[in-house]
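Example (one chain per record):
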Amino acid sequence: MPTTSAGEADTPRERRSTTAAARTDAGARLWSVADALDHLRGFVADLAGFNGRSAALTIDASPVLVTPDLISAAVPALVQLLRNAIAHGIEAPMDRLMAGKPLTGALSLTATLAGGALRFVVSDDGRGVDPKVAAAGPEALGRGIADAIGRVAPLGGRIAMLSGMPRGAAFALTLPLPAGKSRERVRGASSRE
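Predicted structure:
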């Protein structure tokens, strides 16, 4: 049985988690967004199963590193967007088959840095959003989306619907980075030298 010295991780998951938390930029602890959001895969699978559906989440955020406070601000709103996608977007298995879709619904979460902001996009391949409702804005889409908007608005964040009917929906959650702090707080592909 392999042994490890003090401070070394025993499993690949522990090593990945330790590495993600240990990355620093000017002394600030940074987390890998991909690693910090990885637990949402299990959340999506469990919630879909609880609702009689099947869904899988893919996450694309590998080059983005952020401070824990930015992740803490984003996760509750992302959870609401994912809940909404499962409850209202992803169809029951028989409905998906009749629509010519795979039994397992596909959800996607991406994170990027652009223009002084951290931007997440949550999308699904579900039933989409009625264009009349979509025209009324994200707040008209129900309590889950309204709650997500309420969570990010005090931070200067916003949520916008990117697409709707006929196949799926996509929402963008944007959190601004504090002026003059972006290099210290966040480092991604667009800010690497």
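Caption: Residues 74 and 165 are 26 Å apart (CA to CA).
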